[in-house]
Specification:
The chain is mainly alpha-helical. The protein folds into three domains: 16-161, Globin-like, CATH 1.10.490; 167-214 and 222-310, no CATH class; 317-422. It has 15 helices and five strands. Strands 2-3-1-4-5 form a five-stranded mixed beta sheet. The chain is elongated. The relative contact order is 0.07. This is Helix-turn-helix domain-containing protein.
């Protein structure tokens, strides 16, 4: 089988039966080829690592490989509807802000996978087809892929003339500049923002989104919101969410989706805001964060990083705080396992409330007398040090770490190190 020009043409040495056999074998292999292609593209081409890219990659690879299998069986030029589809792929690449090299790199990976599988198919059919079949099939694959690449290039060229696509590219360039670490120079941000039609706020915040959670969000966002949902770790840039007007804009965008809002900062520092937001989201996914400030009701909607600063700071310097906690909280190990977390929360509450039993009881949702009884037990366990104001910050940091990392048995994993002798 030879493929001069743009078509998969028959070879006189292959009769219709053999072509049907080969085409059918390739068609049976399409799911495996597609799965392997998508995995390798997402691993080797960062532009397609985002979760939202998987379905599009699977569909495009399935269309291309399935069509080639059909042309092996019934030779001819690539169908016009296939070329039209890949013109739309090219236009979508421009709209998503990806460079032409990204899809070319993905195509190279896909070709490598396809050739590998074609070799296996040819080997499996070696006894039933004429010699040289593998080389003939491979020689037909490359001009076929060239036709698809030409269709993609045509789609890109048409989309590049679209003002909406140009604006999208500019907004994504601005997003990359805002999230760069170290930060981009403010004058450069101002120039990019003007091109992208983004009104530069005095302060803004980054919102980290959990990949693939919640219902699909609307494609079109308010102009003051920069869209980073195409990234491998999706995000948004929003004006200062502490402003009630901006908060009302943000809430419907995040409804039903796991998200964390970083601290509001100057635009040049948004990379740091996103880092805090992503850390907050990761800790929340691990169950290491409570519902917010002590005594506050559970929050609906996104997690606000600024409401968890003590826990975030403690966990960011975990080794140092662990060292302190092993010493300061060792008396908790003298309690039964099912009481340790209860007493750790009580100690935290009374320290935060200045040993006011009534205020601590409100935070813990228990009777003040219950708090008083627990404090007496804590006095027995810890002695006078829990009343020493100079130790309260240290104790509170240690308790934050304990409560953020506690196992079901009431003890964190890191407390295993060197403390067996402290148990009673």
């Amino acid at each position: 089988m030879r493929a001069p020009g743009n078509a998969v043409e028959p070879d006189p040495g292959l009769d219709a039966r053999v072509r049907r056999l080969l085409g059918g074998a390739l068609r049976d292999a399409v799911p495996a080829i597609v799965a392997e292609t998508v995995d390798e593209v997402r691993r080797e081409v960062p532009e397609y690592a985002a979760p939202g890219c998987r379905d599009a990659l699977e569909f495009a690879a399935g269309c291309a490989i399935g069509a080639f299998a059909g042309l092996v069986e019934r030779p001819g030029p690539p169908p016009e509807d296939l070329l039209a589809f890949f013109r739309r792929v090219g236009a979508a690449e421009v709209q998503e802000g990806r460079a032409a090299s990204a899809l070319q790199n993905a195509a190279n990976v896909a070709t490598r996978v396809a050739v590998r599988h074609l070799s296996r198919v040819a080997d499996a059919l070696d006894a039933e087809v004429p010699p040289g079949l593998y080389g003939q099939v491979v020689s037909a694959l490359f001009p076929f892929l060239n036709r698809l690449a030409a269709a993609v290039a045509q789609g890109r060229a048409e989309a590049a003339r679209d003002p909406a696509a140009l604006l999208l590219r500019r907004r994504r360039a601005l997003l990359a500049a805002l999230l760069a670490r170290p930060g981009t120079e403010p004058r450069r941000i101002a120039a990019l923002a003007q091109e992208a039609r983004w009104p530069v706020p005095g302060r803004a915040a980054a919102v980290a989104l959990a990949p693939g959670t919640g219902p699909p969000r609307p494609r079109v966002l308010p102009p003051q919101v920069l869209d980073g949902r195409h990234l491998a770790e999706p995000c948004l840039i929003v004006p200062d969410p502490r402003d009630p007007v901006h908060r009302r804009t943000l809430e419907p965008l995040l409804a039903g989706r796991a998200a964390a809002v970083g601290p509001a900062v100057e635009p040049a520092a948004l990379g740091r805001s996103l880092a805090w937001a992503r850390q907050t989201l990761a800790l929340a996914a691990d169950g290491a964060l409570d519902d917010g400030p002590s005594g506050a009701p559970p929050r609906d909607g996104p997690i606000i990083a600024a409401e968890h600063v003590p826990t975030l700071v403690v966990l960011r310097h975990r080794d140092l705080v662990e060292n302190c906690a092993r010493h300061r909280l060792k008396p908790l190990l003298r309690l039964r396992q099912n009481r340790r977390t209860q007493y750790a929360r009580t100690l935290q509450a009374v320290l935060e409330c200045g040993f006011n039993a009534s205020a601590a009881a409100l935070r813990l949702h228990v009777h003040p007398q219950t708090v008083r009884l627990r404090v007496r037990r804590l006095d027995e366990l810890f002695g006078p040090e829990i009343h020493d104001p100079s130790l309260h910050v240290e104790l509170l940091m240690a308790l934050r770490l304990w409560l953020a990392t506690t196992r079901p048995d009431g003890q964190p994993d890191w407390f295993e190190n060197g403390l067996a002798s402290g148990r009673a």
